[in-house]
Fold each of these.
Amino acid sequence: MSSFKTGRAGAHGSNSVAPTRHPRKIIHIDMDAFYAAVEQRDFPELRGKPVVVGGTPNSRGVVATCSYEARAFGIRSAMPAAHAYRLCPEAVFVRPRFDVYRAVSAEIRAIFLDFTEQVEAVSLDEAYLDVTASRLFRGSATRMAEDIKRRIRGTTRLTASAGVSYNKFLAKIASDRHKPDGLCLIPPEQGRAVIAELPIGAFHGIGKATEARMLALGIRCGRDLEQVPLPTLIRHFGKAGEYYHRLARGIDERPVVSNRPRKSWGAETTFPVDLSDPAEMLENLAGLAAGVLKKLVRYGLQARGLTVKVKYDDFELVTRARTVDRPFRDIRDVLPLLAELLARTEAGRRKVRLLGVSFSVLEKTQGPTTLDLFAAD
């Protein structure tokens, strides 16, 4: 983990503080070359090679993403595939497998939800987490980010970069600082100093056209932007001028918005030694299921859907699911179905490194609920 350091405070002095008395704790997670990294993980022959996901050398398609080996040749996302081929004729072009990317993204999102319910997914490979209220790691957002990165690597064999700060803008700036596999903290007292040195084209939300207009006004970096009066910014950029005015002062009050309701609750565990005994696997699944059922009761929910997740020792992931007519009352209702779903996998014939269970088709509980339902645990 690295923390951004500045040589001196400059004109901002000690006033470079968060806009609130108790700063928020925001983590931005950005997977490293996500689609390309998944392809290199699943197909060892691609490792170490310049990989381009999306388009073909002779098509009009564009690059969805590319590996870091390809980026060394100047290839970038959204670039025409034909141009990418001219930059690197030896690049390997592969078709996107969005079903696989979505499945991996769901694994990563499940990790996020163990830290906070306030998760805003920007895309399959990028999300903001508001961990202000979390008491994990004694409330240390940097230690949470470290653990998230560790768990992502352990679960998916992929790396992520993390940025930690007191608002979304600076958290995203931080996550870009030390890619790949980086972790950077920008604390409140350094926010404005970081922005002051930031080239205007590096401001997220300022595209090429707006950058050109700002450069024409002599605005080349955050320090220049801060010196422009608000009325001038509004005159040239409309309502967005107010946003730019706040950003230059380290102020970004946009909330982390959970952009979809939670449709399932689950838990999973990765074993230090691969399992080969189905009875031991079933015992672990039962423990996971009991814990999730208790959580559902705590939130006044019940479920009719059950999914078992199995990841084999070669990292192949499979799921098996069933929906029943009546909500599960307790773990005794769930055990037979767990055994049935596990038997529909190759667990036992193949070693297993991860097991998971999730409950779906959620409904509000009718009438009072109590944890006595789970006395059989």
Amino acid sequence: MTAPQPMAGVKVLDVATFLAAPFAGTILADFGATVLKIEHPKLGDPMRAFGTPTECGDTLAWLSEARNKRCMTLDLRHPEGAAVFRKLIAQSDVLLENFRPGTLEKWGLSPDSLREINPKLVVLRVSAYGQTGPKRGLPGFARVAHGFGGLSYLAGEPDGRPVVPGSTSLADYLSGIWGTVGVLMALRVAERTGQGQDVDIGLYESVFRLLDETAPAYARNGTVRERMGADVPTVVPHGHWQTKEGRWVAIACTSDKIFARLAEAMGRTELTAADRYATTAQRIAARSEVNGIVADWAATMPMEELGAACDAAEVPWGPINSIADIFADPQIAARGNLLRILDERAGELVLPAPVPTLTATPATLRHAGRARGADTDAVLGEWLGLAMGDIAALRGSGAV
């Protein structure tokens, strides 16, 4: 008998747009939650038009990140639409939203008023700067969050301009992950106490929380970490090097023992002498010299040989993969990190697999992102028991 998925039976309303809060819905849906994506009847979610377009009218980004969600249309600003929404809230466990703070309140749909209908309701609220503070009402996207949260300041070469840490919407995805963690904890509380709550996340907070020891180091010593390219301030060598054929690799030496093993792999055991680079402090003081030694060695080695030498010496290393490299890698294949599906609208798709891997109750991919309003009639019938005539009347009024 197949065990039910971890989130089976949990009902989630996703009224958010674009990526941050909706990604929390994607994670919950991957693991069995019933996630109902609610979009404006005419406008839809802008994520449908973000990214590479496909023949079905929606982008690859939508097909991937709206997967496993049922889709219905509903105008929350329409009186009849708001009434239907409240009835859906009564049957739901979680609400996901990422409007500017105050928007739901302006529509008469504040979390507190919704909990008068459903006291156990958990509301994930993702915004640029969170629900409080002097910047609470300002707009923002991941690019702004990366800068405000301190991540972009650290990304790039020491003498260059700050760069985007990977050309992805990192803060959006991270906020979705943090949001999922918050929702799971809040659901646990709701099960125990019968009381829901808000999960409040500012996009910038999702990256700021990941900046190593920068906050305590500045508070204690006034240290401002600067851009270091591929380096980190606390250990050496720990970065990226180019091989003989022009490939890039990452090598990570986080201790004196690992550096000693790297020195052996390079045939340079003299580097670990007490008066050379035996200790982390010595290597940090001679950062450019140590990095140069590793660079000279890597430049003489094809990547396959370099990797074999590092593996034999138990030195952590790995290729700097492009997406083409990822598709060809046997580890990726063995882990099932790429899912190939045949979608009824878009044809063959390859999507990133859900994370994490649960051995007893794994995630499933039931379908890619659906068409706008694909499940409106079914949801209104199944959840609220509305007859086709009632649904037609709602559609005629513009509420759905």
